[in-house]
Amino acid sequence: MNEYFYLDGQKKQQGPVAAERLAALGVTDETLVWTSGMADWQPAGSLAALRHFLHSAQPPVPPIPPQGHAQGETNRSFSQGRPRPACPDSHMVGAVLVTIFCCLPLGIVAIVKANQVSSFYYHGDYDAALLASADASKWVKISIILGILSFCCGAGLAYL
Amino acid sequence: MNFPKKQRTFWCRLTVIAAAIAVAAVLYLLDPMEFRFLPRCPFKLLTGWDCPGCGFQRAAHALLHGEWDKAWRFNPFLVYSVPYLLAVMLTEWVWRGERQDRWRRVVEGRWAVGLYLVLFCVWGVVRNL
């Protein structure tokens, strides 16, 4: 029997628990769940394997001890048996590059965002890390474009 | 652009590395003190102030010729930021798994990034005093 992870009311990852116990822990059809072999989180109601457990009013079964690592290849330092997606790209390399070469204070925004990616990630807030990653990427791109533009303007000015 | 993400990442990194090598080659061969056609800092042209990156071409030229003391005089920030950049590249692009996590917590942690930003700003002000 597969063990499942689920997201509780605060979107915190819980588990792994045996399928029989999900209903007793408050998992409904809409709760997002994941187990090894699934590509992404899905509502529990959409999984045929779980429907039986969610809709039968059984008393909770005694707890089963977790089985250690669910995924061998994920980062080992998070080894509480939780599957964890890889850290989103922090764009730190680009951010540091633009502070050195673009002569623009915008690079600071990019660095701060890039720093937030890993700090959110290591605090377990994956969604925020993804957002910060997208932001960092955006600011790096803006800085590169403005940097190139201002260099061209600068070169133009110099020859006038 | 519809490249798969992995492929795009690969080309991005390749571009950065190729550009870095090209810039390093130009700066190794040409002395920015003599060759005036190398790009000038737009911030300096507009405001007359040195930005934190100003002097990087001269400093890089000196660094590439092993003249640390000269590089330090042109732009001390570069002597600090280039090794930092290499550490970040190593963390993001080379290390994987547990080692990457360990490095990332330090190199991209609050203290390292905070120090970098503070030095960046302080240096930008101090050099114009």
Strand order of the largest sheet of chain A: 2-1-3-4
Task: Please identify the structural class of chain A as seen in this structure.
Answer: alpha+beta
Instruction: Return the CATH class of the largest domain in chain A.
Output: Alpha Beta
Our Rg estimate of chain B from Cα atoms comes to: 17 Å
Order of helices and strands of chain B: HHHHHHH
Helical region count of chain B?
7
Give the class of chain B from helix and strand content and strand pairing: mainly alpha
Strand elements of chain A, count: 4
Outline the low-pLDDT stretches of chain A. Answer: 68-79
* Terminal residue distance of chain B: 46 Å
Q: Termini of chain A, distance in Å? A: 76 Å
The whole-angstrom Rg of chain A is: 23 Å
Q: Largest interface, with Cβ-Cβ < 8 Å?
A: A-B, 33 and 40 residues
Enumerate the spans of chain B where pLDDT stays under 50 for 5 or more consecutive residues.
none
Mean pLDDT of chain B equals: 86
Helical segment count of chain A: 4
Question: Approximately how much helix is present in the residues of chain B?
Answer: over 70%
Instruction: Give the number of domains of chain A.
Output: 2
Largest sheet of chain B, in brief, is: none
Topology:
The complex is a heterodimer of chains A (160) and B (129).
Chain A (H helix, E strand, L loop, with lengths): L2 E5 L5 E6 L13 E3 L7 E2 L4 H7 L37 H10 L4 H17 L3 H34 L1
Antiparallel strand pairs in A: 1-2, 1-3, 3-4
Helix pairs in contact in A: 2-3, 2-4, 3-4
Chain B lengths: L4 H25 L12 H6 L8 H9 L3 H7 L1 H19 L2 H11 L2 H17 L3
Helix pairs in contact in B: 1-3, 3-4, 4-5, 5-6
